[in-house]
Every structure is written in structure tokens, then in C-alpha cells.
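Much of what follows relies on a compact textual record of a protein's fold. With that in mind, consider the following protein and its fold in C-alpha cell form.
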Amino acid sequence: MNHYLSARRLSIAALCLASMQLPNALAQKFPGKPLRILVTIGPGSVGDIISRVLADPLSRQMGQTVVVDNRPGAGGNVAAEIAAKSPADGYTLFLTTISTHGINPTLYGKLNFDPIRDFTPVILLATNPNMMVVHPSLPVRSAKELIALAKKRPGEVTFSSAGSGTSQHIAGELFGMITGTKLVHVPYKSTPLSVNAVLSGETMVAFASVPVVMEFVKAGRLRSLGVTSAKRMSSLPDMPTVAETGVAGFDIGGWFGFSVPAGTPEPIVNQLNGEFRKAMADPGVRQKLQAQGMELTESSPTEFAAFIRSEIERWAKVVRATGARVD
């Protein structure tokens, strides 16, 4: 009998030890096949470029191909839904943005995914301030002068964005909320198209990614009214912020991170966080990302989760206060 009990105790102990070692075993075996990055916007966009810049070092580090899979549509919701329903095994990485995990939960009446329940954050990598630009023919040289024009011509000043739910869209709504003006939103399918609208005179103002507009600003084809972040960009220290030129408290920009489907084992989440940190330590990678107007940062999964919750709360207030809608 004693021999039987001893054997049973040993068996139970072995099972407990095996269960404790299972997560580590999962992490050690990962990855055993190619990974994919689901991107919410089309090729050539800032988010797409970021994903492709990181895919190469991640592939080398992990010994597996990392494929970028562009699934644009519905302000990023198409890709988010696909990611949310993917297996929770670490092989599907989702390019997480202010649209899908900040603005859209309130802007859209119904989503087929829950940004909190259906995802596990991995890392916040960068923030991406936009630049407020106008056509040189528009008689304004500062945000303060644009406010005066918008009040003089209510309902006539138009602004273009890369689409409903983008940081560029909500930037225009936030500008109006703070200044007591109303800029008319005209959404396009990409940042280049929204910038072309200002260049051609279809719209008067645009909030756009800095790398896309800088060449036009330097050439005198667009006039900058400032960057949309609270502080000046480290890469453009001489460029004032919109807040400095007349809109106190104005602060909005895109941000980019990565998440995985909820339920992904914690050791794999932590491993992926480490892989991204290693890739971001490469000077060549950092240079390429900074060339896209990125202000680089890093976070733990827990820190990114807290950031996402704060962003949802923050932009819900703006969306509700401004009555912003999907155009």
C-alpha cells in the first residue's frame, strides 16, 4: 500500500512539474513556422512601411519568414476582425493603431471585435505626429489666423484626412472643439490622396504624416501651421507645434504597436516583446523608422495595455463631444 501511495505521489508531482514547464516549452518551440503581420492599411502607408522595416530583422532573429499581410478597410476594422479571430498561438501579429484601439470603439456604432477582450498587447513602438498644412494661396500663416478665417466663413473651411477614424480625421474634429470652429471633413483613402487634395485645391487644410508633406513644405507648395504633438518633434526642432501657434492644449498623433489574439501564452507574448526590442536596437532600423517621422518608444505588454485603455477613454470623450461620425 505504501509503495502504491509513493508511486501515486510521484506521478502527481511529475504532472505538476510538467504543467509548470508547459509554458516554457511552448516558448522554446516558438516559432516553428512563418509569422504574419496584419496591417490595417495599404502598401506604401506609414504603418505598412513600419511593418516591412521590422519584418526583416524579426525574420533573421527568429529564423522564420515574417510576411506583411495588408487588409485595409473600414478604418482598420477589417484587419482587426481577422486578427481577433486568428489562432492565439503567436503567429499572427496585428499592427495596432490609434484607429482600431483608440478611436473606432466609439466612432463606430458596432464592431465585430473588442479591442480589450480580443487582443493581448505586446509592445508600443512609436508615436507619429501629423503636420497641419494649407495651400499657400490660403491667407493664413498660423493656426490663430485659420481660426479667424473659419469663424468668418463658417462651414466653408474643408480639411482632408486619410479616412474616417484616423488620427488625421480626429485632429480636425479636436481642432474645432478646442477653437469653437467647424472644419468640414473630407475623407480620402490614403494620406497621399488627402495631401493631393490640398495641392489641387479640392480641400483647404490637411493633417498628414510629416514625411509625406515635408517635401511640399520645403518646395513652397504647402504651408505648415505646425505639428500636432504637444512638444516639438526631435527630428524637427525648429518646427513649432499647432499649440504654439494658437491652439493651446492641442495634442494628437498616430501611434503604432503590435498585439496578438487574446489567449496567446504569456511566454510567447514576452518573447515577442523581446524580439521587437532587439530589432529596435538596430541603428539601421531606428534610422528608417525615424525617417518616417516616428518618435520611437518601447513598452512592456502591461504598459501598452494601460496605454490602450487610456486612449479609448480619451478619444471617446472627443468623439462624443464633437459628434464625429464615419463619413
Summary: The chain has two domains: 33-128+253-322, 130-227.
